[in-house]
Amino acid sequence: MHFLDQAKIFVRSGGGGPGAVSFRREKYMEYGGPDGGHGGKGGDIIFEAVPGLNTLIDFRYTQHFRAPRGAGGAGQNRTGPGGRDLVIRVPVGTQVLSEDKETVLADFTKAGQREVFLRGGDGGRGNASYKTSTNRAPRQHGTGWPGDEAWVWLRLKLLADAGLVGLPNAGKSTFINAVTNANAKVGAYAFTTTRPQLGVVSHKHREFVVADIPGLIEGAAEGAGIGDRFLGHIERCRVLLHLIDSHADDPVAAYRIVRGELENYGADLAEKPEVIALNKADLLDEELTAALIAELEEASGALVLPLSGATGQGLEKVLDRLIEAIGPSEMHAVDTGDDEPEPWSPV
């Protein structure tokens, strides 16, 4: 399945059905009168966050969503049936933005979360409701209120506890393959990772989710390389694991480049707790490893851990630090009330 984290769709709620113009025509009823019923309410547009989805690829092929309108009223004061609500399922972590991408209209952070995005139009009044003491046989009726419509953007921000950052070839894919069940592509060239990867870590009776994003290079905030588009997927992470390639020409400069791009991106990424690891340490002798770690600790003002994703050296200490930074796990209850409208999709 292809990964897609942005999609533009059109949504329209159903219009209300027209009210009826009707008069009683019954045998042995001396006095008739208006008995036209109201029209039915149009269907709502509802977004629902569901587990098990991690891409918006379905919205590349289905981009228009229209809820049905309500049916018209009928005689004998019968109200028309309402249009069925249209439930649009999205992955957890999806945001609904305005067409100009400037305003977040809805944010789905929990499985089972539902929000009525566009309300269907109310049905029109039947002629029976227009009857007065001076207007005993009204023939007017309401045509029903129209539904609302909008073009919106869906933007997916993957929910993970820890996010991996670093320059290309820092060993992020090797690390996530070593500690999770992910199968990220690994290669001896830049930008091996072209889309975010998720993996679940099981360590010391704890489980947490790790997100790997494509590597950053200097100028990513201005669009260099793959740019900073995928940084949105680590905005909600509790901690960042910053991997630094020990074989880089200047590991300290590599650290500062990534930190600079995090600051330029904003969204408080630079303020998140950070675990720093000098990766590929198995290829260095102890003296050189200690020297590089000392330089990085002086530049960052934080503890730097030696690591080798390929051999497993230092993995235990890095995972311990991540669990410490993530903190206690949180359990979110999912509301599955029986009174919710059933999901439905147009043919």
Describe this structure as you would to a colleague:
By secondary structure, this protein is an alpha/beta fold. It is 16% helix and 22% strand. It has helices at residues 58-61, 172-179, 251-265, 286-300, 315-326, and strands at 6-12, 45-50, 64-66, 86-91, 94-97, 104-107, 114-118, 149-156, 162-165, 197-203, 206-212, 239-245, 274-279, 304-306. A six-stranded mixed beta sheet has the order 10-11-9-12-13-14, with helices on both faces. A hairpin with a 6-residue loop joins strand 5 and strand 6 (104-107). Helix 3 packs parallel to helix 4. The protein is rod-shaped, with a radius of gyration of 29 Å.
Number of helices: 5
Give, in spatial order, the strands making up the sheet with the most strands: 10-11-9-12-13-14
What's the average pLDDT? 84
Using the CA coordinates, give the radius of gyration: 29 Å
Strand portion? 15-25%
**Helix and strand succession?**
EEHEEEEEEEHEEEHEHEH
Reported for the largest beta sheet, the result is: 6 strands, mixed
Beta strands, count: 14
First and last CA, distance: 23 Å
Broad shape: rod-shaped
Identify low-pLDDT runs.
331-347
Helix fraction by DSSP (H/I, runs of at least 4):
10-25%
Structural class: alpha/beta
